[in-house]
Design a protein that fits this description.
The structure is a homodimer of 400-residue chains. The first copy, chain A, has 400 residues and is α/β, with parallel strands linked by helices. Chain A has 14 helices and 16 strands.
Chain lengths: 400, 400
């Protein structure tokens, strides 16, 4: 409640001051980060892990830019979502308000510290940050730097809190305190998120994984189908909105699959096919049941030939993760069937699933992606970390 | 997903058929209800409990009416909440969809069985109903009667399910199955709701209790203040939106309190005052700390004199239950301070808190009231038991 009393102007000024302070203390942050990196290397941690943990001039400047762009976004707090008058004269206004305190639990990616602090502050929420213990020196340094000037703008330092102990118990304690924290957003791999969701006494908004599908319908424009297949699989295979499974209508499989296989092979993608696929693409590996559930996050693609759009829908609803799924077709009726029938956060027609992203959606930010159906679904930005309250304005009305 | 494929028309026809079937089987339901009531009486259950458990011709007709009015409401499913075009030509539509499966856990009030089944069906959600074990014969009879004709409209019977065993373990099992149920709405007393929220692995939307406040400001219209005080306390003291605490500005206390006390005494309301109140209203009982937290649900009112609106706001945010709180004032600045500062689902200006209700708000229904800030807050009707998905319509867009 303290934060929502701070004016939009002061919250924006604080965000810009946070950005400036990051820039001014760039060397200090790099120094602390180097400690984390060297500890992680000594432990023999993997290359991609070290890469995500490492900060550079460039990356810190990215964090600075992110805070500045958040400052420039419209303030969601105070927006009148809806208002209406009752026959008895009562005026009811549904007004957007902050949620309260948001707990962010993330892996060893130091940039999340300032990104999430900025989004919470902008939306009038206090936050409790808890990053992976391997990045603790970096996170504490970033936290120290960005909270330095908060009080100048009437914002208590506690509005951006960080858990500064390494023990995992600290997370468990945080998750057992619904009286202090209103919402938990976990960011990271499936293991982290399942751990958090499994023990939290506080509402959690999350997605476990992105097992995204692309269905090439009988009435697809094959040129578009090919370019979208490549884009959705290859452009950045390690992210949740890349496709893991390609479904192809049986009537178009012979025309499409060899071309697609050729292009995918050039892009170093390994294919794993169903029996019908393997009749067309001789020599590729067979897909087993496990493949249909797999989030490869790598240059691997499972391929299945289906009878029609209904089989595609059933398959996606069964094996998918309700994240992002696409159909390529020129047939409006089939498109509508797919758009209605697929029970996912984002359902695409003739476009790449790679657009599931707060910035690509034009939300100006992204604090996470939800495959849940409670509160928020799909890319989450500022509005998604707000609540509302009703203001009821009368002139003496009583209930009879 | 099965239910959302059923057309609006067929869902409405099914609701009307449910209503007709209730009416046709009125005697059967009364018979089953009589068994519940006689069992409860033998156990020596309290009068108000028996009253809530008992069905009459009148009450069943109320349930029939409720189903018919829900059939007449606008279908929330499929509504385009928002749509916008991106610079790359992608058209993004945010479309309202059902949540999926909603578990309703309630006390021995048989009418909730058909009321909630109707609201879930209308909004395309399947439901799992679990009423208090003392009303099991009534609930099973109502369930049998309302699901009889569902299949005629393409709706599987399982879309309206009921847990037909008496053991409490059944609830615990339901609450531990997030893979089958998407949302839990508990309806009943604080004990039931705390039990549910304490063990659920599924998101719960709830309010524990209604400790509502009325603050009479220094600039109040005293006539309105008096009529709203009486209405908010006396019109129906046993409900969650009745007030439990009256706050009065110190400068107006001497003018207002004696009048209010007189009228409240006539209405048989017992007052419990803070020391300053007791200087004005000699002889009333003193309020202790516990009183400020109390949800009396009875003709008892705690009274406190406060220094100003800021003290009133702090007091409400500390002792209230974030449900419904009101200010009576003619001063716009003070009104705005209160409306902004009180962190409750519904904040009133110059009106009775008794309006916190789906019907009074004009929502046409009410499946519960939430004091949470995730997903839904305040009175919940059809929209509040929906989610959304994004449809992203392209013409070959890929991400670069």
């Amino acid at each position: 409640m303290v934060l929502s009393a701070v004016s939009t102007k002061d919250r924006n000024k604080a965000l810009l001051a946070m950005a400036d302070s990051l820039l001014k203390n760039l060397r200090y942050i790099l120094l602390c980060n180097a400690r984390d990196v060297s500890r992680a290397k000594k432990k023999g941690t993997s290359g991609p892990f070290i890469d995500r943990l490492s900060l550079t001039n460039e990356r810190i400047k990215g964090m600075v830019e992110s805070l500045r762009s958040v400052a420039a976004l419209k303030d969601p707090v105070g927006e009148i979502i809806k208002e209406w008058k009752r026959p008895n004269g009562l005026l009811i206004k549904k007004v957007r308000v902050p949620i309260g305190v948001i707990g962010i639990i993330y892996e060893a990616r130091p940039n999340v510290t300032s990104d999430c602090a900025g989004l919470c502050l902008k939306s009038g929420n206090a936050c409790v940050l808890r990053g992976g213990s391997d990045s603790i020196s970096s996170n504490l340094a970033i936290h120290e730097v960005i909270t330095k000037d908060l009080e100048r703008f009437g914002i208590p330092k506690a509005a951006v809190s960080i858990i500064d102990v390494k023990e995992r118990r600290a997370v468990d304690f945080l998750l057992s305190a619904p009286e202090f924290v209103d919402l938990i957003i976990p960011r990271g791999g499936e293991g982290l998120i399942r751990h958090v969701a499994g023990i939290s006494r506080i509402p959690v908004i999350k997605h476990y994984k992105g097992v995204c599908h692309l269905y090439i319908d009988k009435y697809a424009d094959l040129k578009k189908a090919l370019s979208i297949t490549l884009n959705a699989k290859v452009q950045r295979p390690g992210v949740c909105n890349a496709i893991e499974t390609l479904l192809v209508h049986k009537d178009i499989a012979k025309a499409f699959l060899p071309k697609a296989a050729h292009a995918l092979k050039e892009a170093k993608v390994e294919l794993r096919g169903c029996p019908k696929t393997r009749q067309i693409l001789k020599g590729i590996k067979g897909a087993v049941e496990k493949d249909w559930y797999a989030e490869y996050l790598a240059l691997i693609l499972a391929v299945k030939v289906v009878d029609d759009v209904q089989e595609a829908i059933r398959f996606i609803n069964r094996y998918g993760s309700s994240h992002s799924d696409a159909i390529i077709t020129k047939n409006k009726k089939i498109a509508d069937e797919f758009l209605k029938g697929v029970d996912s956060a984002c359902v695409y027609l003739n476009a790449s699933t790679r657009f599931t992203d707060g910035y690509q959606f034009g939300l100006g930010a992204e604090i996470g992606i939800s495959t849940d159906k409670i509160h928020a679904r799909g890319p989450m930005a500022l509005e998604e970390i707000t609540s509302y309250k009703y203001l009821v304005l009368g002139s003496g009305q009583i209930r009879t």
